User: Fold this.
Amino acid sequence: MATIGHNNLNAKLVLLGDMGAGKSSLVLRFVKGQFLEFQESTIGAAFFSQTLAVNDATVKFEIWDTAGQERYHSLAPMYYRGAAAAIIVYDITSSDSFSRAKKWVQELQKQVFERNMNLSNTRIGGGWGVEFKEARVYAEENGLFFMETSAKSAANVNDVFYEIAKRLPRAQPAQNPTGMVLVDRPAEGSRAASCCS
Amino acid sequence: MDEEYDVIVLGTGLKECILSGLLSVDGLKVLHMDRNDYYGGESTSLNLIQLWKKFRGDNKPPPHLGSSKDYNIDMNPKFIMANGMLVRVLIHTDVTKYLYFKAVDGSYVFNKGKVHKVPSNDMEALKSPLMGIFEKRRARKFFIYVQDYNESDPKTHDGMDLTRVTTKELIAKFGLDDNTVDFIGHALALHRDDRYLSEPALDTVKRMKLYAESLARFQGGSPYIYPLYGLGELPQAFARLSAVYGGTYMLNKPECKVEFDDQGKVVGVTSEGETAKCKKVVCDPSYLPGKVRKVGKVARAIAIMSHPIPNTNDSQSVQVILPQKQLGRKSDMYLFCCSYSHNVCPKGKFIAFVSTEAETDQPAIELKPGIDLLGPVDEIFFDMYDRYEPVNEPGLDNCFISTSYDATTHFESTVVDVLNMYTLITGKVLDLSVDLSAASAAEE
Assistant:
């Protein structure tokens, strides 16, 4: 979830959608300004981070990619844990990928309901052309934010993240446990503490 | 799935997930499957509905316990030594970035019918009601010896070669009584039985140092840490590591039959009519029941309570060791308690476990001395499972089978098994001094 401190927010953002829908392309365009025509399946990248300035605050996104675990429906519950937002991506040239995007919305709702999660906002990102109207209607019906993007031309890519950043709740009630992240330090009386949730 | 892999891993328990992660990072092509539709196998954490399904055969937990999703109940409760091997593996692989930990509040020991805080250094020894005034001074001298002991500096050895001197002889030199020896051996050095007394003292001294260093690391009331949301997070985090490095994940795969050639060597794994080829198989004992033997069993009680364990200073998370001698048993019993502060249950509830290496077939009777320390419980469940170890020759069949999780209170023996398996599989020794975080190329 989003955490706030001196107008700085940290927000975990997860990507959902079928293999090849363009999740990594979207993030690589946003984080590195890159686009590769034949993006290989994601290897070695656990997550990306990128900071955005919006009106009153800076938002640091920690963006989790699926690491291919969506392929056989083996995403672990921990993937969703603590996410402030999810982007569900589908490929506009494939109506199959759109119908599966709807399945991802259901899966997300199920995870939020069944697991100990506090997903406050859900976003749906997509493309233009095919199903545009249908997709927008679907998004509206399900209370999702919808935007068409192109990682290739960069159209709307920054905007989708900016819009999410704007919509993150600013003042989250303090979540119960703030745990610590382990870091490698000498044992002598050090205290590794960092913020979560 | 009709592809060829270097390694197929079966079961997503913690050991299998750590290995899957390490092997993927090494560049091996890994397929990881589980017959269940969830991660974690025997080391998963269950919500309330899953717990009721497993133990009561229905899925209707009473509403007064609160929301099912607020529970993460470990099927294999253990704490993590803050300076122990699992932490080193977590840091080495940079898996820490997926997890949040909190220190465990208290570490206690059962002695002469009462629960006492475990004194872990010379200062605490002087204050502890566990010992009389003269015994305290003797214990303090022993603690100082252990604290100052440095394996590579003979000046700190006080003329004793701890690879030869037995623990009993070392303790005799300080004149400690049996009562003190009992809590030092079982609650500080965390031995599960009394064999250590006749073994070289070095192991016990190292274990005491690990306890003290772990205690110093996070300034909690115990040497332990524990992940938020329960231990089920650990296998998931290592599975993600494996996936990030190219490992393929398939859950809910029935059967998972290991296939062999004429010479008895592994050739692949079949599930749902498809066979994936591989050079090696890594699995938990349940996937190759013909290649393991039973070595013991664990008895466990799981209690949901509305109060902390009595006499533990209202600790939100705590461990209590009941040394075997105090109970007239052959192996120790221990209590483990966690709560809302680690996000394993709703506010006001506590999850307590009583575990031991079973010596009978009646867990409810056998675990009674531990259960009696809990006070009233809202619900209690009893579990008993067999422990297995592999009997195959991995050099001949290329099957690498983990040993079942034992009844120890922490993960040191778990990681020893994993590191040994890693060496058997790869021929390499894992150098835990290397920090892998730099290897994550595409990161910020």
About this structure: Helices of chain A lie at 23-32, 77-80, 95-114, 132-141, 157-167. The mean pLDDT of chain A is 71. The longest strand of chain A covers residues 8-16.
